[in-house]
Amino acid sequence: MTTASTATRPAHPAPEGEVRVPYDGLLGFVTGVLRAHGLPEHRARTAAEALCHGDLTGFTTHGVTNLTRLYLPLLADGRCDPAAEPVHLTDTGPAVLVDARRALGLWSAAEAMDLAVERARTHGIGMVSVRGGTHFGCAGHHALRAVDHGMIGLATANCGRQRLAPPPGSAARMLGTNPLALAAPAGEHPPFTLDMSTTVVPTGRIRAAARAGEPVPEGWLADADGAPVTDPGAYDRGEAHLRWLGGTPENGAYKGYGLGLLVEVLSALLPGAGIGPHHDTSDEPDDDVGHFLLAVAPGRLRPETGFLGAAGDLFGALLDCPPLSAADAPVAYPGWWEQRRTRHRIAHGVPLAAGLHRELADLAGELALPFPTAEPYEAPEQYDQPARAEQEGATA
C-alpha cells in the first residue's frame, strides 16, 4: 500500500468504512492543532507522538479519536494550561515530586519519564511523582520511553477524583480505571510492553461501542445488583458500572480492585493528587490527575550485556513456545504484536475510521492546516488487526 499525499483538505470525500493516511501527515496535523491551541512546538510534537501512539499500536480508543473528544475541550475550558511549566517541589536525587500545574498530560508525563531516565543514569533508579496533571493517553507510550534508553519503565495514573467502579460488594463507585504499564527491553526481540486498565475495559471501549450502536460482551458492565449489562449506553445513563479485572469476586475481582488501589497509592496518595475515594466533591472530578513514572537502569546493577542476553532468552523462549493451532502462531507476549503493527503502519499508513477522518478533515479546514488525503483501506494486513490486548479489554 502506498502512502497518500498531504493536502489542505481531502481532494474527494473519504470512502465509507476505514481509510489509510500517512503517519507523518497525521503526526504533523495533530502537532499543528495543538500548536494552534497554544502549546509550544516541541511540546506539541511530544504530545502528538503520545496521541498517535494509540493508532500505531491498535489501541484506537486512546488515539486521535480523543483529540476533539477529550484534549481540545480540556484546553478550551481552561482546565488544561497550554503554557504550563511544571515545578519541582521536592528533589532527593533519584526521586522528584512535580506539580504539573494543569499541563497536558500527553507531554508532561513524557517529560517526567525522561527526567526519571536521567536520574536512573546516575542512581540506577529514577522516580518522578506528579500531581496537578491531566489525562496522559496510553500508559505504554510513557513506559516505552525508558526502553529507548535500555531501561525498564513503569507508568501509572489515577483518574483524579473520578469514581467509575465500586469495590467488590459495594454499591458506591470509588475508583477510576487506573491504568498501569510496564515496558522492558527484550534483547533482540520487540520490547515487552504491558499496558492495561485495572478494570476489565476502559471507558473509551464502552463509549466506542455506544457510538457504533453495538452491544458489549457480558462481563464488562454490571448493574446495581451485579447482573451483567450489554447495552453500552447504560454506562453514561448511570445504569451500569465498570467491572474490575476478574469480573466477579469468585473469578478474581479483588485482584483487579487491588491493582486499582496499587495505582491509586502510587499515582495519587504519594504525590498528593486528587483521590477517588474522597469525601470532597469537585465540579471537574477528572482534574488533578496523579502520575507515577519509574525508570530502572539494569546496567547499574549487573552487566548490561548479561541482562539483555537473559531478556532475549526469556522472550525468545516464549516466541518459540508451540502454538495450539496455526491461528495462534506465534505465541507472543504483550508488546510483540504492537511493535510489529507500529512498524507496518509507519511504513504503509495508519487506518482511521472514515467518520473520524472526516471529523479531523473538518477541523483542519477550520484551522487552515494541512491534512493527509485518505486512500481506501484495503484488506487488512496481519499487523493491521486490532491490538490483541485491546481485543481482550486490557488497555489503559
Automatic annotation (TrEMBL):
Query: Which residues lie in Basic and acidic residues bias regions?
Result: 387-396
Q: Does the keyword Oxidoreductase apply?
A: yes
Region of interest called Disordered, as start-end residue ranges on this chain: 372-396
Keyword Oxidoreductase included in the entry's annotation:
yes
Which keywords does UniProt give here? Oxidoreductase
Name the PANTHER family on file. Answer: MALATE DEHYDROGENASE, OXIDOREDUCTASE-RELATED
Family membership, please give it.
Answer: Belongs to the LDH2/MDH2 oxidoreductase family.
Put simply, this protein is called Ldh family oxidoreductase
Q: Which organism is it from?
A: Streptomyces cavernicola
